Amino acid sequence: MGLEKWLAITSVALFAMFAGEMISVYHFMTNVPEEIEFSITFEPDPKIIQFVSIGIAPAGVLAAVAFIMSKHYGSKTVGGLIIAGGIILFAGMTVSYSMLNSIDEKYLTDAVKLIPLLFMVLSAPVIIVGAYLIKHKKLRPKKEYF
Q1: Which residues fall within 8 angstroms of residue 49, CB to CB, at 6 or more apart?
Q2: Is residue 103 part of a domain?
Q3: Where are the alpha helices (DSSP H) in 1-146?
Q4: Residue 122 belongs to what domain range?
Q5: I want to staple 5 with a disulfide (CB 3.0 to 4.6 A). Which of 1, 10, 76, 118 is the partner?
């Protein structure tokens, strides 16, 4: 397996990790235990920024590098993996966004409201890039007979 396939696999794993992290922090904000609520203050913005820098930023970079490495010849495997990463990102952000109604008002900040929407929109270019790799075919070199 080429390096670009391993990079695409890693990017899918990081997309899934980011979606899982966001779902877990949104689930925590819907069900904050009382003993934690009164003993510590929970700020969701730094945690979300941490998840973005740990999960989605490296996932996007790895998907971009895999795309750049295979864009000249096209790759159905790499394209499919990048599409899978975009779908996982979209699904995770959809689940996170659906949890907004049950989150307590004191945890609803601009980042909590806008991050799922932002990454739902940004999952579309990821899927388009993957589709480009699937559709792109390697050009045959011209044979020189003389």
Answers
A1: 111
A2: yes
A3: 3-30, 34-39, 44-51, 57-70, 76-98, 110-135
A4: 3-135
A5: 1
Instruction: Look at residues 28, 42, 26, 4 and name the one whose alpha carbon lies nearest to residue 129.
Output: 4
Task: Compute the half-sphere exposure of residue 99: CA atoms within 13 Å on the CB side of its CA.
Answer: 23
One pLDDT digit (tens) per residue for the chain, 146 residues: 588 899 999 999 999 999 999 999 999 888 877 776 666 777 888 989 999 999 999 999 999 999 998 888 878 889 999 999 999 999 999 999 999 999 888 888 888 999 999 999 999 999 999 999 888 777 666 777 76
The single-letter DSSP state of residue 59 is H
Rounded CA separation 117/56 (Å)? 14
8's CB contacts (< 8 A; 6+ apart) are 62, 63, 66, 77, 78, 81, 82, 85
Task: Establish if 141 belongs to a structural domain.
Answer: no
pTM: 0.85
